[in-house]
Every structure is written in C-alpha cells, then in structure tokens.
Amino acid sequence: MKTASLILDKDFVISQIDPRIYGSFIEHLGRAVYTGIYEPGHPSADEEGLRGDVIELVRRLGVPVVRYPGGNFVSGFNWEDSVGPVRDRPARLDLAWKTTETNAFGLHEFVSWCKKAGTSPMYAVNLGTRGPDAARAVVEYANHPSGTYYSDLRVKNGAKDPLGIKLWCLGNEMDGPWQMGAKTAQEYARTAHEASKLMKWVDGSIETVVCGSSGSGMPTFGEWEYRVLDECYDSVDYISLHRYYGNPHNDTPDFLASTMDLDAFIRTVGSICDTIKGKKHGKKDIRLSLDEWNVWYHSQQQDQELYKRQPWGQALPLLEDVYNFEDALLVGLMLITILNNADKVKIACMAQLVNVIAPIMTRAGGGAWAQTIYYPLMQASLYGRGRALKPVLQSPKHDTTHYSSVPTVDAAAVENEDGTLTIFAVNRSLTEDALLQLDLRAFGEIRFASHSVMHHDDMKAVNTEAAPDAVLPRKISPQLTDGAVRLPAASWNVLRFTKQG
User: Fold this and answer.
1) What residues does 5 pair with on adjacent strands?
2) Cβ contacts of residue 352 below 8 Å, gap of 6+?
3) What is the pLDDT of residues 276-329, one digit of tens each?
4) Residues of CATH 3.20.20.80 domain(s) within the chain?
5) I want to staple 5 with a disulfide (CB 3.0 to 4.6 A). Which of 145, 181, 279, 437 is the partner?
6) List of residues 6+ apart from 18 with CB closer than 8 A
7) What contacts 128, CB < 8 A, 6 or more positions away?
C-alpha cells in the first residue's frame, strides 16, 4: 500500500475562495436551453416554461454564477433578438453550431431562471460580428434604471427594475478560426478595451472578463495574452481560460494526470498577468476566469453524423457526453487544482450545466438526473467555501504516457467559515489503496467527523435515467489509524474535521 503525507496549518493560506469558482455555463447550443432548462408543457414546468426538476438539481449544486448565452454562439448573436414579445422575435441561423435559433428563450427569461435557480448571470457580449456600441447598449438595457431609450425599452418589455447583471464577458475565443468574426490579438485588444470602457461608463459597478487565447495548444497562446492585456489592463478585471480533457485512447492513468497540464496553464497565464502589471507599474491584479472547463470527447463523432442528417435543425442533441466514473475522478482533480490556485482563479464555469457536456441530463417530456461529474462539483461547492490552505503534500509519484512525476495522491484543503476543516483528496492509483498521513496539529483538538468516498469498480460506469444512483459518493465510517486515513484505489474523497466539544 502506498503512503502519502499531508501537513496543514491554518496560517498557511493560499487565498480566500471566491464562491464563483463553482459557476457553470448555459449556451444556446444543443438542448442546454430547449428541453434543458426550458420546456413549456413539461410536467414540472412553471408558468414561464422553466423545468422545476432541473432547477432543483441546480439549486443542490449551489452554482453562484452561470455564463450565458455563449460560447461560440455569442459571436453571431444580436441581443435585441432575445427581448420583447416572443411572437415578434426572429429566428436566426446559428453559424457556430449549424442550427436554427428561435429566440423563444431570451434575456428576461434567463434572468428569471437565475433567480429561481439561486444563481446570478454572467452575460457575454458579441465582439465577433458586432462591437462596442452593441455592448454598451445591452448594459444600458440591463442595468440603467430608466429614462433612456434602452432602459425604457426594458421597462416596456416587463422589467421595471434593472436586471442588475454585474459580470460581463467581452466576447468568446476570439483567436479561434472557428469563431465568427475572429480577430488578431491587436484587433481584438482594441475592440475589447473600447467595449469595456464604454460598458463601465454606462455602469461603473460592473466587472469585465477579457478573452484569453482559446487554449494553451493554440499558436497564439502566450503572445495573445500579453498583447491583449498590454492594451486592456486599465479597463478589464479578469482574463479567461478554457480547457477540456478527454480519454479517446482509453489511457486512464494519462487521463487522470491531465491536471498537471491544467496547473501549468493556470500558472503560465497568471505569470503573464503579473508581467503586464509590472510593465505598467500597475496597482491592480488581473485575475483568472476559467470560464470553460470539463471533460469533453465522448460525443464528438456522433455530433458529426447528426450534422449530416439534420442541418440547421432546432435544439439538436449535440455534445451530449455520457460521463463515467473516471470522468468524475478527473473533475475532482480539476477542482483540487482550481482550489490550489485560488489566489489566481476567481471565476470558474463548468461547461456546461444541462445536457451539453453537462452534470445534469434531461429527457424531453421525461426525467432529469445527475451524471457522475455532478457529485464532485456539488461537494466542492458545498464544502469548499472559506479559505484555501496551502497543502504540504508528499506523495509517491508515477509516470504516464505524456506526464512525469505525477503525484499518486492529490489534495486540497479548505478552512470553512464555521471553523470546519475539509480535505478533498483523490487517489489516482487504479489498483492500490493509499494511506494519507495527516498532520493537523495546528488545528488543536479536532474530530474526524465524516468521510465521503466516490468509487466504483468499473471505471466506465455511468448514471442513467433508469439507474441514476449507479455512481454516487457514499459515507463510510471516518477512521484514522495512527493519524492516517485510507483512500481506496481510484477514489474521490471528502474528509471533514470539526472542533472537539
């Protein structure tokens, strides 16, 4: 049996955790909206057509912020199409996903859904086919009280009070050749700077997220971030990162080592932010918005076949990855990596929330259920609030196809607001249990209160509508033997410690 050790001290703090790292994403893509969060006539739907069964699952996740309406979709989107009487809203071709968007669900409906789901909107503006003028107009529409053209139009459309959207994305993946209106770094930087400037002139209380490169594998990566931040440093608050992982070659050890790449990605972008701050002799820190992250690879082949059969269809079942147990382990490891970089990452959105590469799945007219990846996100959101502590972790290491010196045990720790200590830990070994030796002397007299384990003997096991509880975290008896806790092979663990007495 392998042995790892973890030392924690309440004074060794990485950062206060921004709850927005447990955010998610709803794009007008596939069935995320239609038959996802919105399905008039569904048995659970309310008077607005919002599915109550989905709202309940979202509320259980405790998602603080949801990015909307895209994604690639937003780069061809006219926000005006999504407001006003539904009968008057135009249907448009969505070139991003080769479908037809009816606009039956729009801005007001989304804000109403956010309130019912206990979350808040993170709204993206179109900087692909449009620009600063449309961006400042939608801020005026959403946030200005009244007495101007766009604010009065909002009132006319049924919302007397401002929508109060405080977090805004300045476009999406603008260096990607797949993006409508893709731009060079300098073209985008000027557009984003002017858009953010005008948006904040309309409402000085908002925060903006500028686009980083679409991914660390892009030829533009690094130089893009530098050039964009060099132009936009004074006008923006965050820069975005997007990262997905897959296991198409069924190399599970290598797949579970992917967070080595995520950690390097975060640290690289963070150092570029620091470089620009130094160059500018600046006082503010640009922080990171990891506003697309997840596992994504299961559905890619079937999506290509669907496009051939149904070009320009509506609400096609696209990107409907069915997640298995090993995917849940990687999601847990990604959450650990985010927590261990809580000083840099202040916003993170699992992409997406419902049906489209999502923790929640629905059937049109039928049930809603939680996929395997739902549970690590739910537990991290529930127990990962407070201060992220710096883990001094010693673990056996192993090499995989693409990574070397991969820790067999990885962990993050949070001192919760009520004084509870929570440790999230994953044992990457597929065959051996691990002992995690804990040194918690700095916390005084504490009690090992609970131990939740997510494990399945079949790495490919999935949850379905018929068997929604096939893969779940389960509580076991919390036991320390000579100060060590046993972590089963291939497991996600949540260890909670409370004060004695």
Assistant:
1) 394, 437
2) 24, 25, 26, 27, 29, 32, 294, 319, 358
3) 999 999 999 999 999 999 999 999 888 988 888 888 999 999 999 999 999 999
4) 18-383
5) 437
6) 342, 345, 346, 347
7) 74, 75, 76, 171, 172, 174, 179, 180, 181, 182
CB atoms within 10 A of CB 257: 25
Domain spanning 2-9+389-499, CATH architecture: Sandwich (2.60)
Among the listed residues 161, 107, 105, 117, the one whose alpha carbon sits nearest the alpha carbon of residue 137? 107
Residues 6+ apart with CB under 8 A from 56: none
Would you say domain 18-383 falls under CATH 3.20.20.80?
yes
Residue whose entry in the numeric block shows the structure tokens 């897959």: 246
Closest CA to 388 of 351, 352, 345, 357: 345
- Find where tokens 């004695």 sit: 500
Identify the residue whose tokens are 């663990």: 493
Cβ pair 398, 408 in contact under 8 A? yes
Q: Which two tokens stand for residue 298?
A: 């299961």
Alpha-carbon distance 59 to 24, whole Å?
12
Cis, bond preceding 352 (omega within 30 deg of 0): yes
Is the alpha carbon torsion for 189, 344, 350, 122 positive or negative?
Answer: negative
List pLDDT tens digits, range 54-99.
Answer: 999 999 999 999 999 999 999 999 999 999 999 999 999 999 999 9
- Residue ranges of the chain with per-residue pLDDT less than 50: none
d(CA 393, CA 3): 11
Which pLDDT does position 306 carry in this prediction? Answer: 87
Residue 33 backbone dihedrals phi, psi, to 5 degrees: -90, -65
Q: Give the span between the Cα atoms of 269 and 286, in whole angstroms.
A: 10
Number of Cβ within a 10 Å radius of residue 52: 14
Structure tokens of 307? 């496009």
| Residue-by-residue DSSP string for 437-456 | EEE-GGG-SEEEEEEEEE--
Amino acid at 368: A
Q: What are the catalytic residues?
A: 173, 292
What is the SS3 assignment for 88-144? HCCCEEECCCCEEECCCCCHHHHHHHHHHHCCEEEEEECCCCCCHHHHHHHHHHHHC
* Residue whose C-alpha is closest to residue 58's, from 352, 315, 274, 280: 352
Considering only CA atoms, which of 124, 81, 148 is closest in space to residue 242? 124
Q: Which residues of 204-221 are buried (b: 16+ CB within 10 A; e: fewer)?
A: eebbbbbbbbbbbebebb
Q: Residues with Cβ < 8 Å from 15, sequence gap 6 or more?
A: 342, 343, 387, 388
Task: Report the alpha-carbon distance of residue 44 to residue 67 in Å, rounded.
Answer: 24
